[in-house]
Amino acid sequence: MKKWSKKKKITILLLFLVLLALFAGLCWKKRRGIYNTYMKLTNQEIPYSVKEKRKKKYGYYGQKLKVTMDVDNTISIQENDDSANDIQTEIPQAKTLVATSYEIDQQLQAEQENGYTWDDPMVILNPYQISPLTAVVLFDTEEEYGVRFTVKGKTAAADISGEIDAASSHRVPIIGLYPGEDNTVVLELLDDSGRVKDSQEITITTEALPESLTDVIEPVETSGESAYDLTMVYGQSTHLPFAYDCMGDIRWYMNKETGNYGLYMLSNCRMIWQDTAGYVPNLEKPQSTNLYELDYLGRAYNMYYLSGGSHHEVIEKEPGGNLLVLTSSMQSHCEDKVEEIDRQTGAVVNELKLQDIIKCKYENLVDWAHINTVSYQPETDTILLSVRNLESVIKVNWTTKEIQWILCDPRFWEGTDYEKYVLKADGDFIYQFQQHTAYQIDTDLDGDDQTIEITMFDNHFLWRRKKDIDYYDKTEESYLLVYSVNEAEGTVKQIKKIPTVWSKITSAAIYDADSNHFFGMCGHVANAENGWKGMTYEFDYDTEKVLNQYCLKKTFYRAEEMRIDYNDLASPMELDENYIKGELWQPVKTWKWLWNKKPEQVLPADTLTYNITGKVLYIGTYDHQISQVIFKGAKNTYVYDTTEVRLHMETFLDFYENIPVPLQGMNADNYEIYVMYQDGFYDTQQTFAIN
Length: 691
Hints:
Elements: H1 6-29, H2 31-41, H3 48-54, E1 74-79, E2 87-89, H4 97-112, E3 122-125, E4 134-151, E5 160-175, E6 182-190, E7 196-205, E8 217-221, E9 231-235, E10 238-244, E11 250-253, E12 263-265, E13 271-274, E14 279-280, E15 287-294, E16 300-310, E17 314-316, E18 323-327, E19 337-341, E20 348-353, E21 371-377, E22 382-387, E23 392-397, E24 403-407, H5 410-413, E25 424-425, E26 436-441, E27 452-458, E28 478-486, E29 491-500, E30 508-512, E31 517-522, E32 534-540, E33 546-552, E34 558-561, H6 566-570, E35 580-585, E36 588-590, E37 601-602, E38 609-613, E39 616-622, E40 626-633, E41 637-641, E42 656-662, E43 669-677, E44 680-690
Parallel strand pairs: 16-35, 25-29, 37-44
Antiparallel strand pairs: 1-35, 2-44, 3-4, 4-5, 4-6, 6-7, 8-33, 9-10, 9-34, 10-11, 12-13, 13-15, 14-15, 15-16, 17-18, 18-19, 19-20, 21-22, 22-23, 23-24, 26-27, 27-28, 28-29, 30-31, 31-32, 32-33, 36-41, 38-39, 39-42, 40-41, 40-43, 43-44
């Protein structure tokens, strides 16, 4: 037998290896079909990670993915507006609202030193340019006095008053002016005992409301007074937040738009404002990355970056403490993650991805959880989550991530590993469907000190997923609920159920302990007469009598009391050195030879917009049009890549967003900016240098 030569053996071996590689590649390409067939034959659920790859995605143009950016790999931001000076570029700078607020505040301080008197005060309307129904009054007095102001209302109950502490140089904040009117404001000087030493009236004239807020609210029923002096409405299609009084008249608004969810109240009577300046692509709607700490005059004190964007809830863990923020894991899912943000640095110090503690078939949906509230109970180190798309309120230990209990119709979790956590009903009642605003409150409403009370807005509606729950009763009304939970015994009672107009999504239930009133804020009314889109109620908790009811012609996210600290508003601003803080997705450093070839195409100049805030580059584009931003330097190359964030809802392709791309972690170099835009590789002809 003729022996093969060594050279021929090597050739055959190489050919075999090539064929083996081709076969392996074919198997890899076909793996989903083989795997799916196996899963079906064994009566198993096909994992979402497999199903997701087969679904149609929008805004994905078949780009070649050369670099994968890990969305869990973030960079810390600790800077201010002056940090932009470290970047040499022709790209324009955009100031934060913090910087512009502080500039105006310094001008007010200088103006106050001009020595205005009690007899001839200086009145400045809308001092910070974004809160038109506010003003400040400047004057000095020879002695120290406290000051009280009162904006005279159309009724005595509609008067809006506030006081500031004693001083000889006064900056008096005025909140609650009527739009388009000559407002009468009474100023009073108060001595140490609170007695009025002198008073005067001044007139402040305001402009009319913008068209979007004209006739936006109408009283249905009013008692002439309310537990709330002013009630704020915001979010959804109410892009300009406003506040109304007990007669349904608007007395405050912002002329600056918020993001989709609006704002969130803080214990210092400021708010976290979801801004529209920065968004990150998501699997569904893009989410705002920029959060301001803002007051009612329009002054911004801090700006926080949130890498995965924010949705539904930002709340203090404890008064003055860290922030609990709802965001998205981006791991084939959205609106499924909680992060704890350090209040001083913006760093993420703890987090929970809901799929890490719950495994169920509903993970096969992109928005499988849809968390819409979170709150913290310090005495038990637990968080309370309202998980809308699981019909459940879930209590979880924030340190160990162990489930404590689930408040839900037992039929939902029947036959699963989570059935053991479901609270047992004490008495007969109908459970909630896709609820909002579930919070534990401090007030003992059932007279049993062994229980805790949970307030809830029960939308009583199944959004998208009606066929999955055959026991949905379709009552076409929503409810304000209070549950009494005995945690030791694992039982739950429904101790209050007040019906409201049917509000399919958003909305809030608020119990006010001081007045014993229960508020129903119905943000998305389904079948209202005359085209009204929202409704707010104020009930007496005990009698369930409607005290006040108002219709709104816009949908909204939430409504709540406007709580005001007038001494804070009267004080000059103080800033942290690094008032821009937080985390953003970090561009990946890569081999420069991967991008050696300069793009042959130049992107038309008006296709994208560009600006820089601090050391963050903002690129404006329609959602999911850009998949990669390439920073090509002489010695370094970085890529910001969102190719794996696949859009599942075509409607958001019409959403224009400014994507924040941090430059902080890049080495010194001269960079050109390229982009993968739709299905092409383009030179933007934008450049910058880092020294």
